[in-house]
């Protein structure tokens, strides 16, 4: 076995370095290219490097996260951060922006009448008068907007009182507030082994330790979750039961009941990310209905309605929790835009929102059918409804090499490293809604299908 080099690496930072975290990530890449860092080398612990450089720990955390995003390093829970054993070849031909399939936003639908109705909803909020423009939105939303949010959630979670519902600045804003309330720096948050990158970013910002819980084809493993709760003493568990990002798994009801039972036994909060929950025509009962006394249910509207609104509803266990969270939102800038909240309420009240959901479902169904025809089904994990898929890579491909090969051809996707908390199989997420048209989608999927037939070392010649 090769001996690991001493932990003596320090970044060489130029005087005009710009943001420190980017300069450190650049230095990692430059030293890999120059041979000063070799594949498998372990980087210094983040706290040690922060002390050496006299900078904040969070800056080094962001630097290592940026290096991981560039596919330069891998982070292994409990072991450290290592230079990738098979670094990507340098790009030879790059066509920037040719095909974008990395951002997971809803597909554009072709329904001029519905689009006109959406624009009309924007204009109609003028009836709310000058207060809408000249007054701050109260933290958590107005009483009216919270009532509308309760009605929106009631189709899946019955018997919701409006005093348990808060309106937040998107899912990320709600998640930031909930994590800030439930956990302190140094606390542990249990997460699925593959998790939402936004949680990883918030954990670094809030200095929260993430502990992965293994998954199988039905989602998180309840027995493993129970073991983590006993051994790691997490303060909460974050998960995405419906159309999991990135694996597309929807946790069946029996698995949800088992997860809820584990959390009830340990009396630990559940943070249920329901950003995709409105997309399926029928989905199993949310955890918020199975363990209402423990669950903070965050239902974003960016995936099922419009990313432009930046609105989410947070359902808390009780009115007292909602009041506590309101105070945190006031401190963390979680207040939603008055205009966004007003438009969202108008669309829901007029039935426009439900029609938009149906239009997104219909377009997503067409795009899933295209993907099923163009990519090998044996390697695909894809939902019946939704607009992203999980492509498992055959050996000897790694996700970094596959992402890099497509990047050389001008196509953007996201590798498993962006989602991994610990080790995970080689796979990539492909966002079917990111392409503006179905033709662009076919072009991108064709690139991916073609690259799968090649060997990794050939990817640097893709044009």
From TrEMBL:
Keywords: Aminotransferase, DNA-binding, Pyridoxal phosphate, Transcription, Transcription regulation, Transferase
Gene3D superfamilies: Aspartate Aminotransferase, domain 1, Type I PLP-dependent aspartate aminotransferase-like (Major domain), Winged helix-like DNA-binding domain superfamily/Winged helix DNA-binding domain
Keyword presence, Transcription regulation: yes
Keyword Acyltransferase tagged: no
Superkingdom of this protein's organism: Bacteria
Pfam name, any one: GntR
Domain HTH gntR-type per the UniProt entry, residue ranges: 18-86
GO molecular function: transaminase activity
Family of the protein in this entry: In the C-terminal section; belongs to the class-I pyridoxal-phosphate-dependent aminotransferase family.
UniProt name for this protein: PLP-dependent aminotransferase family protein
Organism this protein belongs to: Dyella kyungheensis
């Amino acid at each position: 076995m090769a001996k690991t080099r001493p932990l003596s690496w320090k970044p060489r930072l130029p005087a005009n370095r710009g943001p420190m975290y980017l300069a450190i990530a650049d230095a990692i890449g430059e030293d890999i290219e120059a041979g000063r860092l070799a594949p498998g080398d372990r980087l210094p612990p983040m706290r040690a490097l922060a002390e050496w450089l006299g900078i904040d720990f969070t800056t080094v955390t962001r630097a290592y996260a940026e290096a991981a995003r560039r596919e330069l390093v891998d982070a292994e829970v409990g072991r450290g951060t290592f230079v990738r054993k098979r670094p990507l070849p340098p790009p030879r031909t790059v066509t920037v922006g040719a095909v974008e399939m990395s951002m997971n936003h809803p597909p554009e639908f072709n329904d001029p009448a519905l689009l006109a109705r959406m624009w009309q909803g924007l204009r109609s909020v003028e009836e709310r008068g000058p207060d809408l423009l000249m007054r701050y939105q109260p933290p958590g939303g107005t009483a009216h907007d919270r009532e509308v949010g309760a009605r929106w959630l009631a189709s899946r979670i019955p018997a919701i009182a409006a005093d348990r519902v808060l309106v937040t600045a998107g899912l990320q804003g709600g998640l930031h507030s909930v994590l800030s309330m439930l956990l302190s720096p140094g606390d542990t948050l249990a997460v699925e082994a593959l998790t939402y990158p936004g949680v990883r970013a918030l954990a670094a910002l809030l200095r929260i330790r993430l502990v992965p819980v293994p998954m199988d084809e039905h989602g998180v493993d309840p027995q493993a979750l129970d073991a983590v709760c006993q051994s790691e003493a997490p303060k909460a568990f974050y998960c995405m039961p419906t159309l999991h990002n990135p694996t597309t798994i929807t946790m069946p009801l029996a698995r949800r009941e088992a997860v809820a039972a584990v959390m009830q036994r340990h009396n630990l909060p559940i943070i249920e990310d329901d950003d995709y929950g409105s997309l399926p025509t029928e989905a199993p009962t949310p955890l918020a209905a199975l363990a209402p006394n423990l669950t903070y249910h965050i239902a974003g509207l960016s995936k099922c309605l419009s990313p432009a609104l930046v609105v989410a509803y947070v359902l808390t266990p009780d009115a007292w929790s909602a009041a506590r969270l309101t105070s945190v939102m006031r401190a963390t800038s979680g207040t939603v835009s008055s205009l966004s909240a007003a438009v969202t309420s108008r669309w829901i009240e007029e039935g426009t929102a439900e029609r938009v959901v149906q239009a997104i479902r219909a377009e997503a169904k067409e795009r899933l059918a295209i993907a099923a025809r163009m990519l090998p089904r044996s390697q695909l994990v894809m939902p019946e409804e939704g607009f992203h898929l999980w492509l498992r890579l055959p050996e000897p491909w790694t996700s970094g090499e596959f992402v890099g090969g497509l990047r050389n051809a001008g196509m953007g996707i996201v590798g498993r490293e962006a989602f991994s908390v610990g080790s995970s199989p080689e796979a990539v997420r492909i966002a079917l809604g990111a392409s503006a048209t179905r033709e662009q989608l076919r072009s991108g999927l064709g690139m991916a299908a073609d690259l799968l037939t090649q060997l990794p070392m050939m990817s640097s010649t893709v044009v």
